[in-house]
Amino acid sequence: xxxxxxxxxxxxxxxxxxxxxxxxxxxxxxxxxxxxxxxxxxxxxxxxxxxxxxxxxxxxxxxxxxxxxxxxxxxxxxxxxxxxxxxxxxxxxxxxxxxxxxxxxxxxxxx
Amino acid sequence: xxxxxxxxxxxxxxxxxxxxxxxxxxxxxxxxxxxxxxxxxxxxxxxxxxxxxxxxxxxxxxxxxxxxxxxxxxxxxxxxxxxxxxxxxxxxxxxxxxxxxxxxxxxxxxxx
Lengths: 111, 112
Prior knowledge:
The complex is a heterodimer of chains A (111) and B (112). Chain A is mainly β and 111 residues long. Chain A has no helices and eleven strands. Chain B is built from no helices and eleven strands. The mean pLDDT of chain B is 94.
């Protein structure tokens, strides 16, 4: 089964609004990653947060990690039409030789 | 532009054909991956190569045969595929298996 479950499955917002997507996972991890996938393209790594970090920022992205609840959130502030994409969380598995991707959130930003 | 190059971008093949997918990276990464992605689903790992040796095979059918000729190249040989194998095949690489992955844009495969 998938290591991460994300919600919402789909999200539609107006340009300039903030978008929040959540990821829940099942086992202990030492880091969690977020990736973006534009339609018809490969995945792009956005940010990695380690288990001893609670929050991390990168530009308009803010990621939080709550290891006690086994959950993470990705906040995109002041969204742009170019942020329209699917967003996946990814957690280590298989002795940390691989990652398993969550179910994904499809974000649509309306100009 | 992605730093991982996959060819071809699109491939249509019959169930009796033999074809190969190619992946190339020049970032000096020592871990390389093949994923299969169906529409509206996350990528599913197929194979992991670490230092040119196959380290993970996720119980992939033998009609998919990976090959890593050198540290920059990864091939996926296809033979006698089934219609359900139609998908986007993604290649990725990372500095080692614990680092973030860089993805190519994939090969869109259709099996007739």
